[in-house]
Known about the structure:
Oligomer: single chain
Low-confidence stretches: none
Amino acid sequence: QLQLDRALARAGEKRIEIAKAADNPFTKGTARANTAYKVGDFYAYVETDLESKSEKQRFTDTVKEVRENEIVFDTGLVLDLLGNLVQRPDGQRYTARQDQPLEFAVGHSWTTRYSVRNEQKGRSASIEFEFRITGKERIVVPAGEFDCFVVEGTSKGVNDLGNVLTNRLKRWFAPERVRRQVAHELVRTATITRKPKPPAYRLPPHVPPTFERVLVSVRRELVSFKQA
């Protein structure tokens, strides 16, 4: 939809307006993502462990370049105009994906499939995510109080080692005030299969052939931001 809007704008045409849902009691209103990033915009976050609540890190992403289809931050993070991941600061790259919508309305759902590759480690994975805007909620974070759309997602995928990866994601967006997410929770687990070592190694009876490991369990909250 965003690509169509931009193509129409280049041709001097008006974008296609989605029917308003303000009178629909189930949507609780709609909002449109703000894609007008500018060099110098910044978003500061604090990240905590979901279980212990202990602080893990603080970081600030500042826009250093705005390309035709990408936003490049000084940390090495690259997003597309909607805020979907293109590249993480560690260099991990993603194929086209959509985990953030152009139009926010409660009940909207979609599925996205993509691949991710870390060239430095030579690792890759394929993921399928199902997303749904489940409601609206007012939350308080260090940056202030926000009325947010709540986006929840679950995924399953497999990496090049044959391990099954699952993600549970919950994000809070206030698109009329902040271009990026206000808060974010992620739990990622891997079901790992132990492979016998050659030539005829067998696992001891007390060692299960598969086990589950929590790889990520974090919450991020917006601390401060500046938008031109």
